[in-house]
From TrEMBL:
SMART domains assigned: CysPc
Coiled-coil blocks: none
Signal peptide (from-to): none
Phylogenetic placement of the source organism: Eukaryota, Sar, Stramenopiles, Ochrophyta, Bolidophyceae
GO biological process: proteolysis
Protein name per Swiss-Prot or TrEMBL: Calpain catalytic domain-containing protein
Active-site annotation: 135, 333, 353
SUPFAM superfamilies per record: Cysteine proteinases
UniProt keyword list: Hydrolase, Membrane, Metal-binding, Phosphoprotein, Protease, Repeat, Thiol protease, Transmembrane, Transmembrane helix, Zinc, Zinc-finger
Segments forming domain Calpain catalytic: 74-411
Length: 557
């Protein structure tokens, strides 16, 4: 590159910076307008849409969904019919199942006419695994349920539909564009509310995901059915990976930390198999060439927990049964990783069994002597000793019993957790009350768990800042990120920083593949010694940039 070309490139960069500063200025002026527009869209518009839908549903219920005894007008999904092939497409013959509407099933068991999509808010306790080996899926959904807005984001249909038609939004990680570096795109999946049951005497019983008989919430049943349709049949959900479920339900970047022989842990990215892109067992992993000791693993997981990332964990190979367990930890089973805690020198992990029962029985288990011996830990964590599948386990025992941790890097912007919580139990006034409550929280910033990826401050602290300052800070950080990516060109000398492994910090290398657009894109570096690794752009500091055709380098100021 000659001096004239270098000068033109510099002028281009200056012009880009001036344009972006103008863009930031205009955005600052428009922040109040966009803020209230988003509030209108999220709450008021959704509220009006629900009332319109309810009016049509009321007319439909007046005729009980039928023109006569022989004609049922309720929606039936032609692409996922109520047949044996939808339960087990590989061995459908000789099996017969009773399919019942979720509404009818709840009313039959409880003798009332009230079934709800959501009732009393989203809670991990709404989930309970049934007779299908999809603990990996239940664990992932339970992890998302820690943040109710993430479950609400999945549902396009926001409340019980008398027609029995529900639309959910899933992310197809196989629809990416290798050239454009797109990871995939969102796809709407429509299902009816017919659920396979067993009717061998007495009341019909759900075969798979269980329903809370008291509340009658059907959202867990519909997520399981949507993914069964996605994969091909219910039996196709019998075995899978929590990372696949997290990526499919959120669309966010998901990585796995896998235990290797010798006790170290390696970080990998989930990748779909092109031959069976929507099958939960057809998953490959791309290594990031990052390994961690157990201490480094704990520090990394603690950092992820502080950033409100979604996490699950899986045990060693086994039969996924109570008989195949060690100290209360089921082998071949997936759990939700709720929290990572350190109190003094004590390091504890909080997990949840998707069965809703059967917990760890060793040190730090419910009512274990260790709580009495360490009162400061008891006071800091305030454990609940209900038989609910939630338990604490020491980190040393955790790494012995678990072989994989899946991490979903949840999007942490202003609108991630905002939703209209329609309380169907309140009847006609429910949407109005929820709209007013949501607008109030929206204006004050309450209800937004915010922390930008560039900020080291946790969301609960960051949300105390006024919303307009958060918006401006986001733009400024984005501008800084753009300028930093501009320096990450092929041939630039860089130094690693902010790495999870301390021994990797300070290592020097040369960029051999520049990053593409996106804050979290990877840059490929050749370290001194010949080793090639991929790291995040924010983990790279530029020392010098090659500007001359003969390899002339310019030191970064």
């Amino acid at each position: 590159m000659d001096k004239q070309a270098t000068k033109q490139q510099t002028i281009k960069h200056i012009a880009h910076d001036v344009f972006y500063f103008c863009f930031i200025f205009v955005r600052c002026l428009l922040v109040p307008v966009m803020f209230f527009y988003q509030g209108f869209h999220l709450y008021l518009f959704s509220c009006l849409h629900i009332y319109a839908t309810r009016a049509m549903g009321w007319c439909f219920k007046r005729i009980d969904g039928r023109l006569c005894k022989c004609i049922d007008l309720r929606f039936t999904d032609p692409d996922f019919p109520a047949t044996s092939s939808s339960v087990d497409r590989e061995h459908p013959r000789g099996h017969f199942f009773a399919w019942m509407r979720a509404w009818d099933l709840h009313c039959t068991v409880n003798g009332n006419d009230a079934a709800f999509l959501f009732s009393g808010g989203v809670n991990a306790r709404d989930l309970c695994q049934g007779g299908l080996g999809d603990c990996w899926l239940i664990a992932a959904i339970a992890a998302l349920a820690e943040y109710p807005g993430l479950i609400q984001r999945i549902f396009i249909t926001k409340e019980t539909n008398p027609l029995g038609k529900y639309t959910l939004r899933l992310f197809d990680i196989s629809l990416g564009d290798d050239d454009a570096k797109k990871r995939g795109k969102y796809v709407n999946v429509t299902v009816d509310d017919r659920i396979p049951t067993k009717c061998d005497g007495g009341y019909p019983r759900l075969m798979y995901m269980k329903m809370d008989e008291k509340e009658g919430e059907i959202w867990p049943l519909l997520i399981e059915k949507a993914l069964a349709k996605w994969a091909g049949s219910y039996k196709d959900l019998d075995g899978g990976y929590p990372s696949w479920a997290l990526a499919t339900l959120t669309g966010w970047e998901t990585e796995s930390l896998i235990k290797r022989q010798g006790g170290s842990w390696e970080k990998k990215l989930i990748m779909p198999m092109k031959s069976r892109p929507r099958h939960p067992q057809s998953t490959t992993y791309e290594g990031l060439h990052e390994s961690f000791s157990e201490d480094e693993l704990f520090n990394l997981l603690k950092k992820y927990d502080e950033q409100d990332y979604i996490m699950c964990c899986a045990t060693h190979s086994g039969n996924d049964t109570v008989a195949d367990s060690s100290g209360g930890i089921v082998q071949g089973h997936a759990y939700t990783l709720i929290g990572v805690h350190q109190v003094g020198s004590h390091r504890l992990m909080q997990c949840r069994n998707p069965w809703g029962k059967f917990e760890w029985k060793g040190k730090w288990s419910d009512k274990h002597q260790s709580w009495l011996e360490n009162r400061e830990v008891f006071q800091a964590l305030n454990p609940s000793w209900d038989d609910d599948g939630i338990f604490f386990i020491g980190f040393e025992d955790f790494v012995k019993n678990y072989r994989m941790v899946d991490v979903c890097k949840r999007d942490q912007n202003v609108y991630t957790d905002l939703y209209l919580d329609v309380d169907e139990k309140d009847g006609v006034t429910g949407p109005t009350k929820s709209c007013m409550k949501g607008c109030g929280k929206y204006v004050t910033g309450e209800g937004c768990r915010l922390s930008h990826p560039f900020s080291a401050v946790r969301g609960e602290i960051d949300m105390r800042r006024p919303w307009y300052l958060r918006s401006i800070n986001y733009l400024l950080n984005d501008f800084t990120s753009i300028r930093h990516r501009r320096t990450l060109v092929v041939g630039a000398r860089v130094v690693l920083e902010n790495m999870a492994r301390d021994d990797m910090n300070g290592k020097v290398g040369t960029i051999v593949e520049a990053p593409h657009e996106g804050e979290d894109d990877l840059v490929k570096i050749k370290l001194e010694g010949g080793r090639n690794i991929k790291v995040k752009t924010r983990q790279v500091g530029v020392r010098s940039i090659v500007v001359g055709g003969g390899g002339e380098a310019m030191e970064r100021v």
